[in-house]
Specification:
It contains 26 helices and 33 strands. The relative contact order is 0.11. The protein is an alpha+beta fold and 810 residues long. It binds zinc ion.
């Protein structure tokens, strides 16, 4: 018979917490604010899956630990409720998204409450409610007012399956990030947010963020700052001037031709009246279609045609023939590029069409120089290359002349030094129903006007067919049309696109602090006091989507004067990925762990502790059905020991340091440090070791028992409350203070750990006697001399012989 019955204990404490409003925070009066939350979930009809738990439960343990340290912890949870899944569900079943979402939110809230997280449910939010999307639309109006929103015709990414436009951030290797369908280019008039205006600020701000380096690097690359030169050029026989971007200006003397993108809007004008006109335009059409129809591989599908125009070369090295080339991207720079022998793609293109090439830098080896001169291969971007032209740079190395060349070109007035970014403006219009309508109307002449703020929220009409057709379903709504005419006048029409749901999630942290206030976006003193979010936890896949949009929107709101903290997330943590027997969990493989049956059997505390025990939080771990039994045994042993009156006795009579006292203080130290660094797995190990020791001892002082229960509280919150009551304490353990350790009471003991790689001795390390297996192996792998022999590989086999050695086999 098991001692611990989670099915009665867990609901009991969940009810008590709720009745006492234990986790509700008074944002105004709080003295030591600590704001932390996870990336809010999408309320889908499915049950909470193990991925949700793996994000939320450890994040909650960390928040609980902060609360016990005396912080006023505010940990809210809301729902990112607009978007395609509800709409697709509506198309399939006919159930209106507002209804299915409301049901899903209710179900999910119930499930979330079973985890027993310390969420402040009084401040929850749902992005699909008019109360919330009022502010999504308000944000749009502010963007418009401040020239950060605009409408433009151009080629956009279009997902044929989702039937909507996507932002560049939502296209992953040519595919839709949501459904993996190949994305096509479509010319459309769309609304954009001018995120590019913040490119440098977004880049600079990264330095001050306590985020994973990898995520910061991804944003840096996404922003893609490049220094180079804008060269002003002219076409011959026609009044056409343009700027060409060159990020590798060192070899400008090698330029022998120019290429223009097939999508370039000026192409028809450039070839008008030329004998080549027909052929060029037909070619451009063909390539555009090709790019639209399938994934276009610029290297394989390299094609081109001469336009009949020449570029008046400013450098005096001869005219440059202008070609239309399939591989030029219209969006990058100006869509026109000067080409040289020192670029792989240009080289291949010139070879294919017999365009002359002129190398201007060469290898030191004369034999190789001969080959480069004979155009046997493309010689590009070699720092050691020796320049031959221009004359002023003869003999110098390519890798060292960049800055001087730029100055030289500026002096000659050929170009101007400039910075270019890879980041593009954020296309925010979506041709779908279930989102926040863009608050714009058009007058009879088709001119756009902002909807005055007093008409917000600009409600979603309900008389709409959901079937996506590539045009916005909202265009069919009679109610929306009539509403627009009634307010603005006859012949006025509404904007029918909704906003990208990433707009909704770009500011929600501020809105948690507004507590549903509809008078202002967020009360400034509250925002000043609580922002930024000090610990934000969620998936790494958001690095260049949500996390970049939220930074931009926060910065903009700060510049508009509505908030004082533009960076919303000071510290960011990505949870690791959990696998099932080494394989990624996926619906198609049928190996997704469903939490419900485990919670039914073991309770929430055991389930969450097992997830934490699998490995360091940020690294993830491997699930095993039997592994959870070990945690279950531990929880039952804890319950049994601490609820048996014979075991927990009044203060220990001896004031002298005993081995148990020493272990207790070591355990406090260890658990504190481990939770701080989110190594929740080793924190649990430390508690297990302590239990082993006291079971051997057979009894424990009540003071020590109280401390143990406190240490357990962040990790197993229900069990800890139950034991707190059993050891005679009043109130909640979560409202007690975190114990501190006394270094003087720790009897330090250590031993020499031997580390072997492939059977050979590679290191000796002094380690504490109570080191766990995980720590011993981790410590061993950290040693320089061990790293050397692992050669960056992870060992095939890792053995720990307690108190002696670690043996690694690669
Ligand atoms: Zn899609």
């Amino acid at each position: 018979m098991k001692s611990y019955d989670p099915s009665s204990v867990e609901p009991k404490w969940q009810k008590k917490w709720e009745e006492a409003a234990t986790y509700e925070v008074d944002l105004k009066s709080a003295k030591k604010p600590y704001f932390t939350h996870v990336m809010f979930p999408y309320p889908s009809g499915d049950k909470l899956h193990v991925g949700h738990w793996y994000n939320y439960a450890p994040a909650d343990s960390y928040a609980r630990w902060k609360k016990m340290q005396g912080f006023d912890v505010f940990s809210p949870l809301g729902f990112d409720a607009f978007g395609l899944p509800a709409e697709n569900y509506a198309i399939k079943t006919g159930v209106h998204p507002s209804k299915s979402i409301a049901e899903n939110v209710e179900t999910m809230t119930k499930q979330l409450k079973r985890i027993g997280c310390m969420y402040d449910w009084s401040k929850t939010l749902n992005t699909s409610t008019p109360e919330y999307y009022h502010w999504t639309q308000w944000l749009f109006l502010e963007m418009l007012k401040n020239d950060l929103a605009y409408r433009k015709k151009g080629n956009v990414n279009f997902c044929p399956s989702c039937q909507t436009v996507l932002a560049n951030e939502q296209v992953w290797e040519g595919r839709c990030e949501r459904c993996d369908t190949e994305v096509v280019q479509k010319p459309l008039t769309q609304w954009y947010f001018r995120i590019t205006k913040y490119a440098q600020k977004l880049l600079d701000g990264l330095k001050n963020l306590d985020w994973p380096e990898k995520t910061k690097l991804m944003q840096e690359n996404w922003i893609g700052r490049k220094e180079g030169v804008f060269i002003t050029s002219r076409l011959k026989d026609i009044d056409y001037e343009f700027e060409v971007w060159d990020s590798v200006p060192q070899t400008f003397r090698a330029q022998t031709f120019t290429v223009i993108a097939p999508e370039h809007p000026d192409l028809p004008r450039i070839v008008k009246g030329l004998p080549e006109e027909k052929e060029v335009l037909a070619f451009a059409e063909k390539i555009k279609k090709k790019k639209m129809a399938k994934r276009f591989n610029p290297d394989e599908d390299m094609e081109g045609v001469f336009t009949g125009r020449l570029v008046d070369n400013p450098f005096g090295t001869g005219d440059l023939p202008l070609w239309v080339a399939s591989y030029v991207v219209a969006e990058y720079g100006s869509g026109i590029v000067h080409c040289s022998a020192h670029d792989e793609r240009d080289f291949a293109f010139a070879k294919k069409y017999g365009i002359p090439l002129r190398p201007v830098m060469f290898p030191a080896d004369p034999k190789e120089t001969e080959k480069v001169r004979n155009l046997e291969y493309c010689y590009a971007k070699e720092p050691e290359a020796i320049m031959e032209q221009p004359e002023e740079f003869k003999g110098r190395k390519w890798g060292e002349v960049r800055e001087d060349i730029i100055t030289y070109m500026e002096k000659k007035k050929w170009g101007r030094k400039a910075v270019n970014y890879r980041l593009r403006d954020w296309s925010i219009g979506r041709q779908r129903y279930w989102g926040a309508l863009i608050p714009v109307v058009y007058d009879p002449e088709g001119k756009a006007h902002a909807i005055p703020e007093k008409h917000l929220p600009w409600l979603l009409p309900t008389d709409v067919e959901f079937k996506p057709t590539g045009t916005a379903p909202m265009a069919e709504s009679r109610e929306l049309k009539e509403r627009t005419e009634k307010i603005f006048g006859k012949g006025w029409t509404p904007e029918v696109d909704t906003m990208d749901t990433f707009v909704c999630s770009s500011f929600y942290s501020y809105r948690y602090l507004a507590e549903g206030n509809q008078e202002e976006f967020v009360p400034k003193p509250i925002e000043k006091k609580w922002m930024p979010v000090q610990m934000y936890i969620g998936g790494a896949e958001h690095a260049c989507m949500h996390l970049i949009y939220a930074r931009f929107v926060g910065m903009a709101l700060k510049d508009f004067g509505f908030v004082s903290h533009g960076e919303q997330y000071q510290q960011l943590i990505h949870q690791g990925v959990i696998t099932n027997k080494g394989a990624k969990m996926s619906k198609s493989k049928g190996n997704v762990v469903s939490p419900d049956s485990f919670i039914e059997r073991y309770g929430s505390d055991v389930f969450r502790m097992y997830l934490m025990f699998m490995g360091p939080f940020t690294e993830g771990g491997d699930w095993s059905d039997s592994g959870i039994k070990g945690i279950d045994r531990f929880v039952n042993r804890v319950h049994e020991f601490f609820t048996s009156e014979a075991n927990v006795k009044n203060p220990s009579p001896s004031p002298n340091p005993s081995p148990i006292t020493s272990l207790l203080h070591k355990t406090i130290k260890k658990v504190t440090e481990d939770i701080e660094s989110l190594h929740l797995n080793t924190a649990i190990s430390a508690l297990m070791m302590f239990l082993n020791a006291v079971e051997k001892e057979g009894s424990l002082s009540s003071d020590a028992a109280i401390i143990f229960v406190k240490l357990l509280a962040p990790l197993a919150p229900h069990l800890a409350e139950e034991l707190w009551e059993r050891v005679g304490q009043k109130g909640f353990v979560i409202e007690s203070s975190w114990p501190t350790y006394d270094p003087k009471k720790i009897i330090s003991e250590s031993f020499t750990l031997v580390v072997q790689v492939n059977g050979k001795l590679r290191a000796n390390i002094e380690v504490p006697t109570d080191i766990s297996k995980e720590e011993a192996i981790a410590k061993a792998k950290e040693q320089e001399n061990v790293k050397k022999y692992l050669e960056g590989k992870s060992p095939k086999k890792e053995v720990y012989v307690e108190g002696k050695l670690v043996s690694l086999v690669v």
